[in-house]
Write a structure and sequence with these properties.
This protein is of the alpha/beta class. The chain has a single domain, classed as TIM Barrel (Alpha-Beta Barrel). It is 34% helix and 18% strand.
Length: 223
């Protein structure tokens, strides 16, 4: 199973964001995770399409946009034009989940559906055939630096079973509290794409931290 590491720029130094993004990609990141919060759906306010447009040309890896906003449809085209390659949203934030997925794909991006810790997976019953990514939140969204919620592992295993049953190539992304010490357990449960903010950007050596994560993931492949 291919694994991807997606540093979240939510934990980067915003005064040096361009440099930070360049450094983390040079250190081995597979994606750049771009957290968008609106102080409405979640209790925080972050960054928008103009910042995405500024950083997208600086990196040779996909920009993975996670929309924690309500409503979502108005802003999807803006992020697509700004250089996003993947756009994920929360089903609670859309009046018509199927329509929002269609909107993302119509604008040339891969579509992801994000699940908070207490959000039921039943939304997948009707849209699995249209998804490219399922994002499982392992913290409640809104802030960086939170601790991983252990119950996420069982939910991840269920998501992985559903993906395998679908026969489709759907990424299973995990966001929240991911670090060197737990990334192997998360992979064993079914994750293949790992969002890590504080664990990478607060470390002294981005390349060493990403390498340590890959070493832990390699152990999973040897099980």
């Amino acid at each position: 199973m291919a694994c991807r590491i997606a540093p979240s720029i939510l934990s980067a130094n915003f005064a040096k964001l361009g440099d930070e993004v360049g450094k983390v990609v040079a250190a081995g990141a597979d994606l750049v995770h771009f957290d968008v919060m609106d102080n409405h759906y979640v209790p925080n306010l972050t960054i928008g399409p103009l910042v995405c447009e500024a950083i997208a040309p600086l990196v040779a890896v996909p920009v993975d946009v996670h929309l924690m906003i309500r409503p979502v449809d108005r802003i999807v085209p803006d992020f697509a034009r700004a250089g996003a390659k993947i756009i994920s949203f929360h089903p609670e934030a859309s009046d018509h989940v199927d329509r929002t997925i269609g909107l993302i794909r119509e604008h040339g991006c891969k579509a992801g559906l994000a699940f908070n810790p207490a959000t039921p997976l039943s939304y997948l019953d009707h849209v699995m055939d249209k998804l490219d990514l399922i994002l499982v939140m392992s913290v409640n969204p809104g802030f960086g630096g939170q601790e991983f919620i252990p119950g996420t592992l069982a939910k991840l295993a269920t998501v992985r079973e559903r993906v395998q049953a679908s026969g489709r190539d759907i990424w299973v992304e995990v966001d929240g509290g991911v670090k060197v010490e737990n990334i192997a357990a998360i992979a064993r449960a079914g994750g293949d794409t790992f969002v890590a903010g504080s664990a990478i950007f607060k470390s002294k050596d981005y390349a060493a931290t990403i390498a340590a994560m890959r070493a832990e993931l390699a152990k999973v492949g040897q099980d």
